[in-house]
Write a structure and sequence with these properties.
By secondary structure, the chain is an alpha+beta fold. Helix 8 packs antiparallel against helix 9.
């Protein structure tokens, strides 16, 4: 029994209130008990902290005065959600984001306490600080703004070149047309990658990634990565590929592994320096055969205190380039394969990101 303002089942009101106070102190969230006449009968220190008020200013006061919440449109919470006016079958409401006069934004849930015949005799409020929720929403808004900025440039380029070709096709030499069409194609691919990244973030968050395992050859995937980089203007000498013979068979989704490699090589080219190393090696994961895929560079490396943060969503490490979701996607794709990913140091300096993927044919594909 958590009611602290009525005598129930042979327990005095004073004893009941003491029990409520003791339990409330243990709760991680704010707790406020309100009687049917709207007087705060019990509140814990966390509730006062969430609302930004003194703890001794709550108990014994009218809840409408000390917790004069408003919704984001400026409407009075108590006018809109008065428990006394609610139907007898109403038991409370789910989380709502509200503003306290102190300026604090809180997340509030309510449970209405009723007698067997439905009469209201109290209300319990649960309070949480909305600051973390708002920070997450701001990060998402920042991500949307960043992606919009990233999309703006290729879309403007595609629109400009397409408009020029449509209006002045006969005036351009064939070589100029080829350059413009290749630019449109590359910019279109960039837009598709950004959109795919956003979709993958949603799939990773929802744990709903789908995989289609096939036999994958790391040497072929590495060669494709180098070929694409050289086609974009990078020097072939910048890339060092090392795939020894005798690797265990790697069964994975080739499109997803290519996506992992693309993000890792992009990261090394953009944030690293010197040569970029693409390496594969036999390894073990939880005592079972695995293939280690390592992408390294000769730059300044990643400080040890940042090596876990780089896989966080939106983390950019002070860089304004990119969306900050590339390595977050890498970890999500690797873990979907049952693998692991970690940051270390490449021999001679620079960063090295190692991906361990289970080797061998998946059980559901074996005869």
């Amino acid at each position: 029994m958590i009611i602290g303002w009525d005598e129930q089942e042979g327990v005095t009101g004073e004893e009941s209130r003491a029990r409520v106070a003791m339990l409330a102190r243990l709760l991680p969230d704010g707790f406020v008990a309100v009687s049917a006449d709207g007087i705060v009968r019990s509140a814990n220190a966390r509730a006062a902290a969430v609302c930004g008020v003194a703890e001794d200013s709550l108990v014994g006061q009218s809840v409408r005065e000390v917790l004069d919440f408003q919704d984001m449109e400026g409407n009075s919470y108590w006018e809109m959600s008065d428990p006394a006016r609610a139907l007898r079958i109403t038991t409370g409401h789910r989380e709502r984001m509200l503003m306290h006069p102190s300026g604090r934004v809180v997340l509030l849930t309510a449970r209405y306490l009723r007698t067997p015949d439905g009469a209201l005799f109290g209300c319990v409020l649960g309070l949480r600080d909305a600051a973390e929720r708002m920070r997450a929403e701001r990060k998402m808004a920042d991500l949307v703004a960043t992606v919009a900025h990233e999309l703006k440039s290729p879309i403007a380029s595609m629109t400009g070149f397409t408009n020029s070709l449509l209006r002045h096709w006969d005036r351009f030499a064939d070589d100029d047309k080829q350059v413009m069409l290749r630019t449109i194609q590359n910019d279109g691919a960039r837009v598709m990658r950004l959109v795919a990244d956003l979709l993958d973030v949603s799939f990773i968050d929802a744990r709903s990634l789908s995989l289609r395992p096939q036999l994958v050859d790391p040497a072929v995937l590495f060669a494709d990565q180098v070929t694409r980089r050289v086609a974009r203007g990078e020097s072939e000498e910048r890339f060092v590929v090392d795939v020894p013979d005798g690797l265990p068979e790697l069964w994975a989704d080739p499109d997803r592994v290519e996506q992992i490699l693309t993000n890792l090589v992009d990261n090394a080219v953009r944030h690293g320096a010197g040569r970029v190393f693409l390496e594969a090696a036999a390894h073990h994961l939880d005592g079972e055969p695995a293939v280690a895929v390592r992408i390294g560079d000769e730059g300044d490396g990643i400080p040890e205190e940042h090596r876990e943060l780089v896989f966080s969503r939106y983390w950019q490490g002070g860089s304004r380039a990119g969306t900050g979701i590339g390595l977050y996607i890498v970890r999500g794709l690797v873990e979907a394969h049952g693998g692991t990913v970690q940051v270390g140091e490449h021999d001679g300096g620079g960063a090295r990101i190692e991906v361990l993927l289970p080797a061998g044919e998946p059980e559901h594909l074996r005869d």
